Fold each of these.
Amino acid sequence: MKTIALAALIAGAGVCASAHADFSGPTAPANWSIVNSGTLIGASPVLGSAVFSPTQLVLSGSNTLADELGCSGGSYAVLGPCRTSATINLGGTFSFNWSYLTADGAGPAGDIFGVVVNGAFTPLSDPGGAVAQSGSASFAASSSFGWFVNCTDCIGGAATATISSFAFAQAVPEPETYALMLSGIGALGLFARRKRRGA
C-alpha cells in the first residue's frame, strides 16, 4: 500500500509553466521558419511574407496576375498548395489576438487564414464572412505551432493577418519534482530490499 501511495505521489508531481510574452526569447523571430509553398502561375507573381516586430507578426499571402486561378493545383475557397506560413518547433500553449484583411474583391474565400498545430492546418478566418475579421485564440501544441495565409485563387489581391498580444507558455518540471522523483525511486528500492529480506 505504501509503495502504491508513493508511486501516485511521484506521478502527481507538479509542473510549472514557463511563460513568455511577445516575439522574444524562445519565440524570437530567428526561431520561426517562413515558407512559401505551392507554385504561382500567371504574370507578376508576388510571394507572401512574414514581418516580425517585438510585439506583432504581419503575415501577408501570395498573389499573382492571372485570368483564372493563380495557384497551380489550387481551387477557389478550398485549402490548397499555395500558402505562406510561419511556424516554430516548440511545444506549449500559444495564445494571441488576430486581425485579418483581404484585398481580394471576390472576398475572403480566396485567401484563408489559420493556424498550423503539430503540422495540421486549421482555418480561423470565415471564408463566407467579411473582408475584415478578427478574434482571439489559444492552442496547445505538442511539437510545433504557427500561422498560415492560404491563397486559394492567388489573384485579386492578397490577404494580411496581424498577430498581436502573443503569449507562449511551456510546461517545465519544477525543481522540487526532480527531488521528489529521486527520493521516490530511492524509497521504492528500499521497500524492494526489505521485501526480499523478509522473504
Amino acid sequence: MKHFIICLYTLAWLLPAAAFAQTIAADAEIPRYDVEVAIFKNINAPKGREFALPVASPSRGENIFDMASSSSVGKAKKLGYQILPSSELRLLDVVGRLVESPRYELLLHVAWRQPGMDLENAIPVWLRGGRIYGKEYISIDNQIEIMDSVPYVADPGEETSFQFDAQTPEALEEQLQAQRDAISHRGLYELEGKITVSLSRYLHAYVDLVFRSPRLTIDEESTNAAQAEYLAARAADTHILNNHLLKEHRRMRSKNLHYLDSPEFGMLILITPYEAPETPAAAE
C-alpha cells in the first residue's frame, strides 16, 4: 500500500512535467518567420480626369495585429507576433536606392516576426503609412455608404437615371455634409490595409491595401486656363480621397524578394525563416 501511494505521488509530479514538455515540443515544431515589407508610391503614376469607380477600404475585423495600437501589440505578442527593431531590417540597401530615386516615395518600411500558421489561424497585420490627410478631406468610403443607403428608383423615361430621396442638389449636399459630420474623423492615412502571411504546404501572402489620393489634384505649375476652369467647377472633388487598390494573393518563396504593384503604388516583401540563437543554457 505504501509503495502504491508513492507511485501515485510520483505520477502526480511527472504528468504536469510531461504535459509541459509536450507543449514545448509542440511550440518548437511551429516554424517562425520574419516578414519585411517596403511600400512606396509611384510619383509618375498616370494622372487624368477619367472617372474612377469607388473602391471601399479594407475591412479590419476583430482579430488583427494593429502595429499602431499598443493593446493590439500586447495581445499579438502572446500569440507569437512581434514588431522587429530597425536593426533587424534586411532591405535597408534596397529601400535606400528607392528613396534616392525621383520616381518613388517611401510610404512604409516595417518588419515583424510571426508563427507559420494556416490561413484560418493566421492573424492579419494592419499597416498605416505615408501622409496623414487633415479633416478637410473625406474618404470615398463615406460616399459609398451614402449611395448604398439611398434607394434607387428607375425612371421610366431614362434607363440610366435614378431618383434620390434628395430632390435638389442643395438637399443632396446637405445630406452628404450631415453624413460627413456624423463620422468620427481622426485623420486618413495615405496608405492603409492589411497583409496576412500563412503557411500550408507553401507560404502565402494575402495583400489588401489601399493608397489614398485626392480625386482631383491641382498642379499650379502645369494648370492652364481650361484645366483651372474644369477644376473650379469640381472643387469639391479635390477633397474626396479615392482608394487605389492593391489586392492580391501570392505564393511566396522564403528568402526570395517579391514585388507586387499597381499603377499608383507597389511593395516589396521578404519572408525569412527565423532560427532562434542557441544559448549555452538552452544547449545544456
Amino acid sequence: MKVDLVMWTKDGSRTLDVVLKRINAVVPSQCINHRFIVDDGSRDNTVEIAKANGWDCLKNEGKGISDGANTALKHVETEYFCSFEQDLLLSPDWWHITNHLNKKNIAAVTGIRLADKPSGLRKLQQYTTKQYCKIINNPTKYSSGKLLEANSYGMFLDNTIYSTKILRQIGGFPKLPNYGSGTDSILMKKIKDNNFTWVVDFTVISTHLRASLRNEISHCLWCSKTFPILNQYLYSQSITLASLVPRLMYSPIRALEIAVKMKEPNITYIYPLMRFTSFKGICKGYQEGIAL
C-alpha cells in the first residue's frame, strides 16, 4: 500500500524537526508516495526544516487548518493518505492503525494522543481516555450524552489515515470561520451522516508536544470558542450555558477525586482551570456570534 503524507504548518520550528524525523522512522519508506507540507505563511524556518527532511512545500491556498488540509487533499494521488500536525510526535507503533483499513466503510483511522507536559495534564488526559474506553465498552450503562462524548473522543486530524475517495466524496475538510478549530468534529459528523466510520485505536498513543500548561490553556480557549457551531450542528438537544455551570462549579471536587485516583496532586488545580477556560471560551464564542 502506498500513501501520501500531508501536514499543515505555521511557525512550527520548535517541534517540526523531531516530528518529521519520527514520521520518517515510523511510516515504512516503501509505503510513502509523496510528502506534502502546506505552509500558512510561516515567519520562522519551518519551510527550510521541512525541505531538509524530504518534504515538498506548498502554500496554503486560504488560511488556517481547514484550507491547509483541503489544499493538501488536492495534491493527494494515493488511495489512502495520512495527515499529521507539527506538534504531534507519533507513537513508534502508529503504523499499526492501518490494520483497521480492512474493515468495511472506513473513512478514517486515528490513534490517541496525550500531552507530554506538565505531568498533571498528561495524567488527567490518561484518566479521561480510560473513562471513555469504559463507556464505549459498556454503552448500555451510560446516557446518550456520555455516549456521544465517548464516541467522538480522539477524532483529531493530527495522526490520521483517510480513504481519499471517501474524503473527496463527502466534500473534503469542512471550513469553519475561526480557521480550523472544530474542523475534526464537523468532519466526524459528515462521515457519520454519510454512513461511513471513523475508527479510534485507543491502544496507539502518540505525544502532543506542548510548550507549557499556558500553551494548553491558550489552545483550549481557542477551541472552546467553536462551541456555538458544534452545539447547533452536532447535538440533537441544544446545550445551554446554564447547563454547563454545575459542571464548572463541581470541578474542584471532581479534580480532587481524579487526583487521588491518579496519584497526581497537580490535577487539583489543572482540571478546574481547564474547565474554567473552556467555559470562558464558550462564552466568547457566543459573544462573537460565531456560526457556520
